[in-house]
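Hypothesis: this fold can be encoded by more than one sequence.
Test: take the structure tokens below, design a sequence, compare later.
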């Protein structure tokens, strides 16, 4: 069974496209906010709360540029991108030091002095923004250098938590509930952090947390369909219903009721989506099984065909080599079938083949396999059976065919058999059983004969390719000649 992880090409393209768009958005926001801060012009809307600080704007710009360089494959470009991520981390640490060390004058203070301290808002970003950009810079560095998968995903989740908290608090600012996280993390900074961390995750879609969502399986479809709604819907509902309450005068009890209804509806929608995907998957699986059965089935007899035989022999040989589970192979051929066809017509011949197929299904155990090998020849794979047991099984099959009420004339068959041995391939096993069948035909038909292992065949009935080399001591379990 193939257990290799297979990625959906469309999902991977979608993630990589999002990564490119996120990098362009961050470059635009970072550049616009930086220029707006320097020129004291509102080039990028603040979306509530304090405007983005210059240090934060530079971090957004540098992160966007680094993200745009992912996937180029050129070593020097990746080094430049790593340098940009390191600069983001340095700016974040510089802002944090300004809050923790009295009298500290770092990069942000230098920018204030250069651009006119007191004439503009302070360049230093807020504590929460600094923590977010420190984690974002670390996430980018680890992705670019393919290091510490677990740590980089933890950094990403940390940035995601900070950004989501900022977005959630936006609704409470609308409700005029006083100070919120927006006083420490402007909404535009939170949005930039959200796009940034998701962009970094999407830039390497085959690893980390995004790996399962790119899978070309039902689990991948679930992840792509449900993760984003589950992440964003609570924020959207908080925003919308607080907006209704504060800006449009909807009573709090009505807004809360609407929130409960929409939340329940969203859960029901997700359950319906999961059920639909499961139903679709089950129907596709059933259709696939039906197609496989059709592809593996002989249309005339209802038994397996050559394709089925090849797959089953390889499976049994693999089990034999790994677990030493024995099995034997029988080749059955209808006696004088060409004369029967010539005398009674091809329709009668087809009826006889169908009846042989039915009799084989009756005579064999459920786990044994019967296939139509071609023409009037059938191959039987008997699981867990060794050479001494083969005559009993073969005689039961032959007697079942003899005792059947044939409508025109009695029909008999001949069987040749072989037990699998250590050096066998599918070809040598079939050749030994076929050589045994030839011996049964030559010795009078309506009988069974078997032949021993490929390594020690000395029988003159064996094909030249199978005739034995000389052995001082034959391998255990082998037979030195055909067996009647």
């Amino acid at each position: 069974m193939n257990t290799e992880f297979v990625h959906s090409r469309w999902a991977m393209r979608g993630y990589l496209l999002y990564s490119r768009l996120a990098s362009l958005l961050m470059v635009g926001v970072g550049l616009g906010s930086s220029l707006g801060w320097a020129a004291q012009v509102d080039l990028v809307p603040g979306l509530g709360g304090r405007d983005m600080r210059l240090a934060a704007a530079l971090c957004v710009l540098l992160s966007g540029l680094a993200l745009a360089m992912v996937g180029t494959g050129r070593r020097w470009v990746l080094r430049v991108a790593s340098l940009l991520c390191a600069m983001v981390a340095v700016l974040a640490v510089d802002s944090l030091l300004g809050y923790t060390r009295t009298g500290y004058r770092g990069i942000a203070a230098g920018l204030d002095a250069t651009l006119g301290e007191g004439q503009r808002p302070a360049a230093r970003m807020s504590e929460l923004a600094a923590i977010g950009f420190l984690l974002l810079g670390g996430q980018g560095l680890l992705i670019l250098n393919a290091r510490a998968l677990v740590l980089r995903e933890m950094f990403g989740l940390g940035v995601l938590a900070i950004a989501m908290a900022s977005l959630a608090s936006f609704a409470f600012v609308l409700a005029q509930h006083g100070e919120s996280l927006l006083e420490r993390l402007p909404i535009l900074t939170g949005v930039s952090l959200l796009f940034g961390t998701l962009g970094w995750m999407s830039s390497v879609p085959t690893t980390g947390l995004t790996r399962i969502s790119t899978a070309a399986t039902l689990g991948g479809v679930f992840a792509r369909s449900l993760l984003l709604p589950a992440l964003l819907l609570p924020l959207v509902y908080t925003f919308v219903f607080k907006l209704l309450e504060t800006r449009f005068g909807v009573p709090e009890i009505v807004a809360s009721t609407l929130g409960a209804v929409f939340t329940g509806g969203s859960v029901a929608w997700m359950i319906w989506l999961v059920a639909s995907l499961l139903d679709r998957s089950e129907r596709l699986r059933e259709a696939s099984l039906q197609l496989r059965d059709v592809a593996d089935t002989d249309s005339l007899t209802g038994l397996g065909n050559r394709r089925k035989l090849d797959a089953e022999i390889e499976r049994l040989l693999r089990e034999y080599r790994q677990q030493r589970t024995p099995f034997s192979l029988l080749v059955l051929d209808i006696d004088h079938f060409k004369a029967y066809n010539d005398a009674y017509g091809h329709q009668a011949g087809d009826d006889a083949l169908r009846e042989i197929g039915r009799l084989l299904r009756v005579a064999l155990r459920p786990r044994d396999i019967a296939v139509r090998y071609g023409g009037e020849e059938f191959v039987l794979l008997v699981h867990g059976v060794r050479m001494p047991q083969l005559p009993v099984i073969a005689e039961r099959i032959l007697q079942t065919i003899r005792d059947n009420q044939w409508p025109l004339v009695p029909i008999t068959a001949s069987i040749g058999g072989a037990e699998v041995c250590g050096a066998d391939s599918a070809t040598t096993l079939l050749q030994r059983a076929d050589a045994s069948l030839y011996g049964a035909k030559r010795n009078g038909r309506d009988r069974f004969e078997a032949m021993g292992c490929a390594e020690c065949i000395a029988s003159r009935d064996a094909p030249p390719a199978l005739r034995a080399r000389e052995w001082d001591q034959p391998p255990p379990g082998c037979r030195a000649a055909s067996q009647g």
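The chain has two domains: 9-216, 306-466. Residues 29 and 265 are 35 Å apart (CA to CA).
Hypothesis status: open.
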